[in-house]
Specification:
This protein is an alpha+beta fold. It is built from 9 helices and 20 strands.
Length: about 375
């Protein structure tokens, strides 16, 4: 439906987007994930028509958007700051685009009221139409901004970090609400975020951006379980990443030790990144450990051959509600994180400063050139 072809945009000579191509499908929720400065908001501004690309083309339903002004594109935009009119009621904010559109404004006030009331009901604000925007909460303002955008029936809705200003509980509720609203209306959403959990939980597909390029465009489970590069794994904030090189003996050497490689990794590469997800690591006891180890040391033999193992000293833990993150320090001072989900069993107790073995199936590791 919406296609970006080789988009390039520079500001003061610095590239914001570099030859970027991607598509937004009909009736799809597409999330864009990346760090600050990766080009996410620039892409939205080009699609909306607020900025003009230096090179490349945008097409909507096969028709070029190059040179088409923003108000004629049929594309809605919800900014991070909501940009509501403080001197207007909630109702009048939502009605603004219907009444004052430069293309086909709605002159019949009964039609305006009907459409605004329907939209306020859809976003859960049916009883707040007469309130001023200064009298409602941040989450309600977010819904007003969304309703104002959707009431004019855009073909595409662009959301620039729409949940960034909300508290954690409200952000979680709005995650569900946005997907529900999109599904009911059948409008394609493109949602920019710097939060990896938000991107994975909301998107039908996820685009990982960095330095103006799309590193991976895939379904959330593929991005999470099989990131196609160490850079993507780093943005997910769920992987321990070791930098080193492949050895002649078929291992991976880094300053903290040497690890066995998965069978699928070619051995004819030099520099490499070795990644293992936090929740794939088990903590095992070692000789001399005082207490807290739930598993015995792994013996030599076939079981050990299938595992990657590293000695590490326990530092501390961090409780996050549904999980605990344990922190361990390797011989080279690198800190390794181990995620333990509390639904599994009673959490382990480790002794600060004691030595343990971090172990995981070697086939669970991802190794990149």
């Amino acid at each position: 439906m919406l296609e970006a072809r080789s988009l390039t945009k520079r500001y003061d000579g610095q590239p914001a987007l570099q030859d970027l191509s991607l598509d937004l499908r009909d009736n799809e929720y597409l999330t864009l994930l990346g760090p600050s400065g990766s080009g996410k908001s620039t892409l939205l501004r080009l699609i909306a028509g607020f900025d003009v690309a230096d090179r490349g083309e945008l097409l909507l339903d096969g028709q070029s958007l190059n040179g088409v002004p923003p108000h004629e594109r049929g594309i809605g935009f919800v900014s991070q700051g909501f940009a509501l009119f403080p001197h207007m009621t909630v109702f009048d904010n939502v009605a603004f685009g219907l009444r004052y559109s430069q293309r086909d404004p709605v002159k019949n006030e009964a039609d305006v009221r009907r459409r605004v009331v329907e939209m306020l009901d859809l976003v859960g604000l049916a009883d707040l139409g007469d309130r001023m925007t200064g009298q409602i909460s941040g989450g309600q303002k977010q819904r007003v901004a969304l309703a104002r955008t959707l009431v004019v029936n855009p073909r595409v809705c662009l959301l620039d970090e729409p949940l960034g200003a909300l508290d954690a509980n409200l952000r979680q509720r709005m995650t569900v609400e946005l997907r529900r609203i999109r599904k009911l209306l059948g409008i394609s959403f493109m949602h920019v975020t710097g939060n990896e959990l938000e991107a994975l939980s909301m998107g039908d597909r996820v685009v990982v951006l960095d330095q103006g390029r799309a590193l991976q465009v895939d379904e959330p489970d593929r991005v999470y379980n099989r990131p196609n590069s160490a850079a993507v794994a780093r943005f997910l904030n769920r992987y321990n990443i070791f930098e080193g090189k492949l050895t002649d003996g078929g291992g991976f050497a880094f300053p903290g030790g040497e690890l066995p490689l998965p069978d699928s990794v070619p051995t004819n590469r030099d520099a490499a990144s070795y990644c293992i997800r936090y929740d794939r690591i088990q903590v095992r006891g070692m000789q001399g450990a005082k207490n807290g180890a739930t598993d015995a040391p792994v013996p030599e033999g076939s079981a050990a051959a299938s595992l990657a193992q590293l000695p590490a000293r326990y530092i501390t833990s961090e409780y996050s509600g549904s999980a605990i993150i344990y922190f361990f320090r390797l011989a080279d001072e690198k800190v390794v994180e181990v995620e333990y989900h509390l639904s599994h069993r009673k959490p382990d107790a480790f002794t600060e400063g004691d030595l343990y073995t971090l172990a995981w199936p070697r086939e669970e590791a991802l190794v990149y050139a």
